Structure formats: C-alpha cells, structure tokens
Amino acid sequence: MTGSAPAIEVKDLSVGNGVVTAVRGVSFTIPQGGRMGLVGESGSGKSMTALALMGLLPMGWSTHGSVLHDGVDLVKQSDRAFSSRRGRTISMVFQDPLSSLNPVRRVGEQISWVIRRHTGADKKAAEQQTIELMTQMKLPRPEQLVRAYPHEISGGQRQRIMIAMALACYPQLIIADEPTTALDVTVQKQVLRLLNGAVNERGSALLMITHDLPIIAAMCDTVAVMYAGRIVEMGPVQEVFRNPRHHYTRGLLDSQPTMDNIALDGSARLVSIPGMVPPLHNLPTGCAFNPRCPAATDKCRTVMPELAGEGLQAACWHPVDSASEVAAQ
Amino acid sequence: MVIYVLRKLAFFIGAVFVASVAIFLLLRAAGGNVAAIVLGKDATAEAINALAHSWGLDRPLPIQYFDWIFKMFTGDLGQSFRTKEAVASLVTDRLSVSIPLALSGLLLGLVIAIPVGTYAARNVGKPSGAVLALLSQIGVAVPVFWAGILLSVLFGVRLGWLPTGGWIDWSQSWVGAIRSLVLPVLSLGLIMAAVLIRYVRSAVLDVMNQDYVRTARAVGMTRTQALLQVGLRNAALPIVTIVGLQIAELIGGTVIIEMVFSLPGLSRMILANVAAREVIVVQSTVMLIIVFVIFVNFVVDLLYGILDPRIRNAA
To answer: What is the domain count for chain A?
Structure first.
C-alpha cells in the first residue's frame, strides 16, 4: 500500500473496439477502503469499465486514459506484470458463478491456486488457508467441500467460492460486477452480507456494479450513474438518491419498485423512462439522454454537458431542481 | 464412476452384438451362392451343393451365425475356404503392418494438430492464424492417396531417402520395416492433422471465450497460463470426441495408403478376399475392425468421464 494514495484513480478512461466506443471519458477516484457504486442500464458501459480496470477486455477492445492503482498505471502494464496484480491487489467477482468457475477443477484447487500464485505458499499451507477462507465464507463442511466440483454445489455456495478466490489475497480493490443477479432472491442477501463483511474486515475498497439501487444504498458511500458510456451523475449516495440532479437518475429512482409505490389494490404504479438506450454507434449529439429527457432544450441537443458541481456532480444543462423553473418560464 | 463405466460397457457389448448380426446378414445377402460362383457356370448342381455343404453354408442361418460367434470367443476366426489357412494367423501377420501404420498416423496427426490448432486459435485475426487456417483447409481438400503419391515422388524418387513402396518384415529387419512405414505414416498423419487442426482451433477458441477463462485471468493467470492450464484441459473434451469419430476415417485412410505404398496390411487382405468371395475371412476381419472402432468409442466415453466430472456424475 502506498500511504494515503487512493485505491484507484481513473482518469479520462475510454474503451472502444475501433467501431464503437463503449466508455467515453470516465473519471472517478475510490479512496483506500472506500466504496463506490456504479449504476446504469445494460449497455451503459459499466461492465466494460470494470473489465477495462482489470485489463480483461474481450479481444479487439482497447483502453485509453489512465488507471492509477498501487503506484502504477494499469493501462500501461504488460499482461505478465498485470497478471501478478490480478487477484493480489485488484480482483473481481463476476456475475454468473456457474459459468465463471472452471467446471473441471475442484473448488478447493481453484481457491488454493490463487493463494499459491500470489503468496508462494506451499501446497499444504495453501490448502489449510483455503479451508480457513471457506469457513470465513460460511461454507458448510469446508473439509469436504474443497473436493466438490462447481456443478455439485448450490449457486450461493458457488458465489461464496468466487468471493473467496477474489478476496484470498486481501486486495486493495475489489470489483463486484452484479454479484447477486444470477442468484436466487433468498440467497442474494446472505451473499451480499458476506461480501460486505469480508470487504470490511480486509479494509479493501469496493467498486459495486449493479442496477439494483437499494444494494448501492446499503453498501456504498458514493455512487456514479452511467449512461451511454459516460458518468452523468456522481456523489455521496444519500445526496444522489434523495436529491438527484440529473433527469436520468431521477428516472432510474422513479422506476424502482418500492413498497410506497405499490398501491393497496395490488397494482403497481411504476414510472418508466420513455424511449430506449441509444445504440453506441448512433449516439445523439449533445447530451446522450436528450431524446428521453423531459427537460431537454436545443442546448442539450447540441452541446455535451460535463460533470459540474461540488460534492454532488451532474452532467446536465438543466439539473432537476431548476427544471421546474425552466418549465415555468 | 463405476456405474458410468458399467453403463458404457453394456452399451459397448450391445453395439458389438448388433454390428455382428448386421455384418453377418449383409454378407449373406450380398454374397449370392458362393459355391456356385467359385465353381463357375459349368458346374453341376450336385457339385455346388457338395461344396456348399463342405463349407457349412447349407446350414440354417442362426446356426451359422452362432457357430461363427462362439468360435470367435475362443479365438477361432474360421478358415479360408480355399487355402484352409486359419483366419487368425492370416490376420496377425497383417496387423503387424496395419496397427503401427494406423496408430502412428493418428499419433502424428495429434502431435501436429494440438499445438498448431492451439497456436491458430491464439492468433485468430492475425496473418499467422489465417495462414494456418488456410493451410489446414487445403490439407482437408487433399485426398490421402495424392498426398501419398506426392511424398513418395519427393522422398522416394527425387531424394531417394526412403522406399517408394513395399514392405520389409519386422522379423527381417526392423529398421527396414520402419523405413517402409515412414512415408505411409507421414501421408496419413498429415491428412489427419489437417482435419484435426480445424477442430482443435475451434475447440480452443470456444473455450477461451468462456467466463471461467476470464476468471482464471482475473485471479492471476497470464494469457498463456490460462490457455494451457484451463483452456486446453477444457478443450480436451470436444477434441477427444472428434478423434473418436476420426477413427473410422483413419481406417479408410489405411486402406488407400496400403494400396498406394503396396503394404501387406489388413485392408488389402480384405479387399483381395472380397474379390475371392471368401465370406468367412471377410466376415471375421471386418468384424474385428468393427470391434476395434466400437472399442475406441468406448475408450472415448471413458475418457469423457475422466475429463469431465459433470458427465461422470450424471450417470
């Protein structure tokens, strides 16, 4: 660790494959031990951002900008140098634990491989640590479970194995990309609680990617909202969720089902954002959200707004509070 | 795993039984009256019947079938009508040519295809990958006999390094035997490799796009480690499948290669005996080949169980 340097500092990150640009000039900083949520619809570029930070983009995609982490710019790392960091200082929990675990290796072997790779522990010590780690992850009968294959255990257990692999070496930053989306609702909470506790205990920073806003509210200090490859609003979770400035964030919050907006007769009064996420190869000029925005003006259709503001930042020419004034004029 | 093996074993035995009935009936249906053909059109009915009787061909079919099968179990593959030579001894001689030819051909094919196919998969989209894909495409289009003739012209005629054909028996000189096998094995192996490269390439390519390979890299494997430790291990399954399917292709290839290089192998023996209407010889040797092919597929099934815990447990 390098003193008080942030766990990760992303500057002007862009990700493209030569045809489309999925992430367009994203910047954010997560301090040591900080927790940031990244929200947005599918196709907003949040998963691409995560893969870019890990240096694991699919073939043909490349990264521009800089990602400072542990004293180096990750964008400039060779595969070999980067591989010695992955799983050690920066690691990731993926969405679907069944497809993300090697089907032909026992789960214990998969965890202990990570320990041996990064700590140089011998086989025996690594196996011992694996069992301890699995106990921490509240996996039942770890001595027997180490010998199981991924298909032999439940979805929740698989995700705990995945988390154990990601946290095995006490990384500075953990990226969790929709870690509970593929799980049964009944185990989602358990897995999140476990992830939360384990991250806390290690003092790691967390980048939580999800479209589930209550998860962000419960687990993160700050939140960034992505739309069409850009961060459109970013700030402390409470502020963003109570008083969103960007109309897209407003729309996202309004379309969350809560107990309040389900009427007594059982019918839900849910609001949805009109229109669709624009395709990356055909983005509107100006603010990408303008075709769906209730407050859009000619300025929004021509000039792209940048993030502005202290504390809570929004990239909007007519932020929510002033929107009513615009309409009144 | 035990249940899995037993199930596959039962399947193996069932397949062999069905195949034996099929080959028996097919030869009876296609053979016509063998004794009449052998004696020619001037033969009398008595002579034909007497010959058929002495060969046991006038017995009811089920009796002929069970007689043949039970004798097979004791290692008695029957005997040639004309020379009275035991089929078993005819076959063992021939196998000392055919087995080394087929197995070395397959082995060479794999030794070439696995690294080259993997390399092609890693370099997909780059010129080197495209060149390999093109070469293997051409290789697939080359008939095995033509490959044999080309190699024979180059190494046998032009360079004079190796015999262009013929056979020196192992008992005479094993160096000579190996020398006579080099070009046939090379032709067979290269053609096998061309086919296999494409399957290895697509199997590896498919596996490398799987989430678990990404996970392997996310916890610290380099691209090469992920390819060798996770990718190849998972790609082994589709590769083993295709090798099992290629066995039939391989045997077809040895028939042609034995002709091109005048090797006294099993395939040439079968062809000669088909022409001579030696029903028992053909029936028994074809049956042996079928058992071999089914056995290879049995081994492939067992390999699945070893390679993939999901299949092993599903049984």
So the answer is: 2
- DSSP state, B142? S
Instruction: Supply the pTM of this predicted model.
Output: 0.81
The CATH code of domain B92-275 reads 1.10.3720.10
Is A79–B222 a contact, with Cβ atoms under 8 angstroms apart? yes
Same domain, A188 and A278: no
B309/A99 touch (CB, cutoff 8 Å), yes or no: no
CB pair distance less than 8 Å for B212 and A102: yes
Q: Do A36 and A158 lie in a common domain?
A: yes
Question: Per the domain annotation, does A22 fall within a domain?
Answer: yes
Kindly report, residue by residue over B84-119, the tens digit of the pLDDT. Answer: 888 888 888 888 888 889 999 999 999 999 999 999
Tokens linked to B215: 């996970």
Is the CB of residue B196 less than 8 Å from the CB of residue B253? no
Taking an 8 Å cut-off on Cβ atoms, the answer to whether A166 and B220 are in contact is: no
Residues in a beta bridge with A177 = A209
CATH of residue A21: 3.40.50.300
In contact, A176 and A191? CB cutoff 8 Å = no
Residues A202, A295, single domain; the answer is no
How far is the C-alpha of A227 from the C-alpha of B43, rounded, in Å? 94
pLDDT tens figures, B30-72: 766 777 777 777 778 888 888 888 878 888 888 889 888 888 8
Query: Is the ipTM reported for this complex over the cut 0.85?
Result: yes
Distance CA A267, CA B115 (A): 61
CA distance B307 to chain A (A): 7
Which two structure tokens, joined as six digits, stand for B63?
Answer: 């009796």
Count residue pairs from A and B with Cβ separation < 8 A.
80
